[in-house]
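Practice record 12: protein with iron/sulfur cluster.
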Amino acid sequence: MKNVFFTDFHSTPRKNLFKKIEMLLNKAGIEEKIKKNDITAVKIHFGEMGNHSFIRPVFVKKIIEYVKKIGGKPFLTDTTTLYTGSRTDAVSHIETAIKNGFAYSVVNVPIIIADGLRGNASSSVIINKEIFKEVSIAHEIVNADAIVALTHFTGHELSGFGGAIKNIGMGCATRKGKLEQHSNVSPFVKKSKCVGCKKCIEWCRYGAISIVDKKAQINSELCVGCGECILTCPENAIMINWNETSPVFQKKMAEYAFGVIKGKENSSLFVNFLNNITSHCDCYPMSDKTIIEDIGILASSDPVAIDQASIDLINKATKKDLFREIYPNIDYTYQLIHGEKIALGKRMYKIIKVE
Ligand code: SF4
Ligand code: SF4
């Protein structure tokens, strides 16, 4: 059974949230994870341009300060995206991060995009798991001494929810790694809804969509499963066969997460923020209204335990299986079950309140 430390958002003038974050990190054992002069990758999602529900920079600053206080050398990091957007290459990604509030003058730490200028700076990590024998991880993640993964917990259309497993599994993969995780997920066009406007064709950078008999058609040989066309279609005509593909996607994500922390099992810490929770992830260029009241912040050395605890807290607060209700065809437990199976972490946990 793994320990998951938890603090809620209640605060007082004497014990504000910044103080509580410090207490949470301390209880979660950050001082044993990060040694003096450890170059520490603080993995975060900076948010797509237009999104505003990502973790607030002032909270990140507090965590950075703590890492520095105990002797670590932190850098803020993420990787380039597979889809076309405001974080497709390192230049636009850093610009987006700064515009979203992560300027050096705010967070007091440099930003390094871990998979290089165009998402191909990789290190192969041998994992010998069920699907992958080796995985393609962003070079500067592998190069770092320690990882602190800060995760904004949200819903997700392919995995039900996106937590710590997704933040590192997908978020620390190179472009090749992301493509490998997505490649079996081919959407399809519901012909009765398609009006042949071609908007999806303009969006698809892989040339996977064409018009046949006035209706869009996706070539699964060319499609990488980035899911972008689903967002762009004004008629909601592009769909994914969730039942077939989501379990594999989640398993792949868990195996990639294993590759990210391989060799850093004792120098990784996970922090999940359960606030501003939306039905979709921060990759969207917008933030819809939140779907639940803010719950709190969790910290653990185990990415499976912290995600299990996060989803349990959300379901307890809403008295229902919230993300299952939003994405009825997605069984999000695959990432947790497979994560435990491959020794990424444990689903059994003990919540320890930090007050
Ligand atoms: S068809 Fe859609 S999911 Fe496939 S590559 Fe093109 S945009 Fe991405
Ligand atoms: S964007 Fe939607 S409606 Fe337009 S062509 Fe593509 S699938 Fe059809």
